[in-house]
Amino acid sequence: MNALLIDMFLVAVSLAVAAIPKGLPAIVTIILALGTQTMAKHKAIVRKLPAVETLGATDIICSDKTGTLTQNRSENGRDLLGDPTETALIQYAFDQNINVHDLLEEHKRVQEVPFDSERKLMSTVNKYGDKFFVAVKGAPDELLKRVTSVKINDEITPITAQQRQDILQTNQDMAKKALRVLGLAYKVIDKTYDDPSTDNVEQDLIFAGLAGMIDPERPEAKAAVAEAHSAGIRTVMITGDHQVTAQAIAERLGILDPGHDDWCTA
């Protein structure tokens, strides 16, 4: 009986092996490779196949803006390395025939208050002859809270409520054009800070102006959003930009209809 069972088991294994062609593993590998190449042409490679199954039940797609829906470039396509915001400002200086290298060498940075997303500002303290120059940039609405003066026609005067309102309105107008807007301010001090922080560096500032830059959309992003909408999928853009700038970009991409107010900020 035991011999019969062993013989039946061996026959079953033999039939199972015979049912699978020897070339099947190679064939499967080739087919998967060809499938991957086809998916790559459509920019649809996935790490795990179950993720593809999930796409069939997708109702909402949430996407980061910078670098995903946009190109993460603000310097007109030139090849400067570094943060796009910083390189855009440097490129603007180059375009104005400013010798940036000599300027930075003459006015060396001696202190800094780094940017953080809570206060939305960053500052540096640089040598300025026998004094020191404090340069501050960041979100215009946050910057204006720390501005006490404005320079007009080489004359520094206390900033008025109307001037504040005009600056904020200009910020809004620029943001509606999908521009990312930075406020700029400064002051001159006699000596460096013992402990540089927002409480001492970023106070009693002189307003210098606004700088606008755009991070252009990716050419393929608008078509991708339209295709998602045609499939009944809602698209959501996530960004830390000013809400008016974010709305303008979303409208240009087709995520929002022009003038549509069904959006939110966190």
Portion of residues within helices:
40-55%
Assembly type of the chains comes to: single chain
Average pLDDT number: 85
Largest sheet: 7 strands, mixed
SS class: alpha+beta
Strand percentage lies at 15-25%
What is the count of helical runs?
Answer: 10
Order of helices and strands: HHHEHHHEEEHEEHEEHEH
N→C terminal distance: 75 Å
**Low-confidence segments:** none
Described by the principal axes of the CA atoms, the overall outline is elongated
Biggest sheet, spatial arrangement of strands: 2-3-4-7-8-5-6
Number of strands: 9
Gyration radius from CA atoms, angstroms: 29 Å
Describe the protein.
This protein has 266 residues and is an alpha+beta fold. 19% of the residues are buried. It has a 7-stranded mixed beta sheet. Strands 1-9 form a two-stranded parallel ribbon. The termini are far apart. It has 10 helices and 9 strands. The protein has helices spanning 2-19, 24-41, 50-55, 65-69, 84-95, 100-106, 140-144, 161-175, 221-230, 243-253; strands at residues 60-64, 109-116, 121-128, 131-138, 147-152, 155-158, 180-189, 205-213, 234-238.
